[in-house]
Amino acid sequence: MATLLTPRSRRVPERGDPARAAGAAAPTGDGSTRLIVPPGFRTALGCDAVGVPARYGFRILSRLPSKGCVYADTDWWWWLVPTGSDLDLLWPLPACYARGAEIPDRRPRLIHHPDGTSPYTPPIPLYLLCCQLTGTAPSWSLIPTQGNGVLSEHVHPSGPDRP
Predict the structure, then answer these.
(1) pTM higher than 0.85 for the full model?
(2) Which of 34, 92, 111, 119 is deepest in the core (most CB within 10 A)?
(3) Which pLDDT score, from 0 to 100, does residue 6 have?
(4) Above 50 in pLDDT, residue 156?
(5) CA 104 to chain CA centroid, nearest Å
(6) What ranges in 43-145 are assigned the alpha helix state H?
């Protein structure tokens, strides 16, 4: 009985560890887990994660045109997105945005391994699906303009003097 009540230690997968290679999650020691990108993927853009309750998981996965690494446990599904995918976006509740792909320690496992070398799910289609499934209108900042309503030159491909 004492064995059942004693907390088990958690180890962080090391380089070459089968758990790391399989795309497991590594406990950080502070009650959270960092999702580990399987070897062979390019992560030059950094990694954040977007989580949704499991009840939305299959619907989102089946509707996305392009899918990156997806992790899941019994309660939550997590998609890897490039760092900064929350800039100027308000992810709808109950979706959860996790900077650095550091999520609550729930022991998710990799359930979708993408083709190619990118671990990322494109954030805009994921955001729009989250909004649609939660009945929330999409909301993001407007494109910056100059005082006369013309898009600024670093945004508009035609330059600032053309509408």
Answers:
(1) no
(2) 119
(3) 30
(4) no
(5) 13
(6) 54-63, 123-134
Look up residue 59 and give its two tokens: 């619907």
* Token couple for 47: 């990694």
The answer to whether 98 and 71 are in contact (CB under 8 A) is no
Sign of the C-alpha dihedral computed for residues 10, 15, 19 and 24 taken in this order: positive
* DSSP H or E segment with residue 148: none
CA 130 vs CA 23, 45, 70, 119, 133: distances in Å? 24, 22, 15, 19, 5
**pLDDT per residue as tens digits for the range 40-96:** 999 999 999 999 999 999 999 999 999 999 999 999 999 999 999 999 888 999 999
149: left (phi over 0), alpha (psi -120 to 50) or beta: left
Length of the chain: 163
Give the C-alpha separation, 133 to 50, whole Å: 14
